[in-house]
Amino acid sequence: MTESAKTIARTERIGLLCMVSGPTASGKTTVCRKARDHDDCVYSISCTTRAPREGEVDGVDYHFLDKDDFIQRTAQGDFLEWATVHGNYYGTLKSEVVAHLEAGRDVVMDIDIQGAQLIRATEDPFIRNALVDVFILPPSMDEIKNRLFGRGTETDDQMRLRLYNALDEMKHWREYRYAIVSDTPEADFDRFRTILNGERMRACRMRTPAGLVGNIPTDLPQELITAE
């Protein structure tokens, strides 16, 4: 699809707000980044009070805030949602989402269970109409352990906490419209892209296409319904 065709397609519908959840090391962040890099999506960058991991960049991977700044932004109503996860604050800024949706750009969010529940509960009809939610399940707990050990970024205590939370998070997978059992990063993204492509064609998200629906008469012309 050419860039001009992409622009026309975006402006003829509202953007998707695609929430992607899953336990730690399930591959949800990789899926979101691939959607940003290969599918013309905006990756919403969350705020967090946790310390950056090695190689993470402020404003690229997360907006890293101190606790006082996070609480102040909460009081100001800057967040679409926020929650406490693994002992740290996480949240999504409204400024990272709403303007993109209005312009017809799809936004993907790597979001925890609590945050997804809060957004689903919104009374804002615009946000509700844009919502798509996907849960990524690991193929096994052993695979989660292997992926966490492969990171080499957690202490033993942090590993135990993440594994405990993973078990609790997986109880919620049926709250989501879609579920993907993780395989390879490429296979996960192929399935995710299939979901996005279907959701983009839902009639409830389409605006009136210029020169088409707006010109369809509400009543059929008499000559079409008069028997010869």
From TrEMBL:
Coiled coil: none
Protein name (Swiss-Prot/TrEMBL): Guanylate kinase
Keyword Disulfide bond: no
InterPro entries referenced in this protein's UniProt entry, alphabetically: GK/Ca_channel_bsu (IPR008145), Guanylate_kin-like_dom (IPR008144), Guanylate_kinase (IPR017665), Guanylate_kinase_CS (IPR020590), P-loop_NTPase (IPR027417)
UniProt keyword annotation of Transferase present: yes
Sequence intervals crossing the membrane: none
Catalytic activity: GMP + ATP = GDP + ADP
GO cellular component annotations of the record: cytosol
Taxonomic superkingdom: Bacteria
Gene: gmk
Alphabetized PANTHER family for the sequence: GUANYLATE KINASE, GUANYLATE KINASE-RELATED
Matches recorded under HAMAP family: Guanylate_kinase
Residues reported in the UniProt entry to bind ATP: 22-29
Predominant cellular place of this UniProt entry's protein: cytoplasm
Compartments, as annotated in UniProt: Cytoplasm
Keyword annotations: ATP-binding, Cytoplasm, Kinase, Nucleotide-binding, Transferase
GO molecular function: ATP binding; GMP kinase activity
Family label: Belongs to the guanylate kinase family.
